[in-house]
């Protein structure tokens, strides 16, 4: 099943599992390393995994959690199927794998409800048509006097020579 294979550098994918276990067992999955064991992989980031009873979502429900909370588009979600889910669920984001490839071997008490993708930000844009966006549109002025000012550096050089001369006079 390709849903259980995590591609290297995968981004924006959310895997939703129903947990067929007692509440105490589901709560135990919140402990460090417990999810690693039930998914058959090591080194998962627990900050990228949510485990909770569906009842905690109240009126929002799984549909709202995925759409509004996780940024999953409506066309990927089946409201009827998600409203039928009861008990505890586990949400595993791609970031939990830290960019590594993995093959999941879930415990038989975990049932994959679905694989969803977060809406990506569209960074494309149209052409900017303002005058200030055109190349070389900034006001280009040349200084009135093109001769370099070397008075300051000459003064510093004279002071350095005086200091060196004074040090040499004191030493000798």
Radius of gyration, CA atoms, in whole angstroms: 32 Å
- Strand content bin: 15-25%
* Number of continuous helical runs: 5
Question: What sort of overall outline do the alpha carbons produce when their principal axes are compared?
Answer: elongated
Number of strands: 6
Determine the N-to-C terminus distance: 89 Å
* Broad structural category: alpha+beta
Give the helix level as a range of percent.
25-40%
Low-confidence stretches: none
Spatial order of the strands in the main sheet? 3-4-2-6
| Overall pLDDT score | 89
How does the major sheet shape up?
Answer: 4 strands, antiparallel
- What order do the SSEs take from the amino end to the carboxyl end, as H and E? EEHHEHHEEEH
Give an account of the 3D structure.
With 172 residues, this protein is of the alpha+beta class. Helices cover 27% and strands 17% of the residues. The chain has a four-stranded antiparallel sheet with strand order 3-4-2-6. A two-stranded antiparallel ribbon has the order 1-5. The longest helix has 21 residues, at 151-171. The radius of gyration is 32 Å and the shape is elongated. The model has no long low-confidence stretch (mean pLDDT 89).
Q: What is the strand and helix layout of this fold?
A:
Elements: E1 5-6, E2 13-19, H1 23-28, H2 34-39, E3 49-53, H3 61-69, H4 79-83, E4 88-93, E5 102-103, E6 110-117, H5 151-171
Antiparallel strand pairs: 1-5, 2-4, 2-6, 3-4
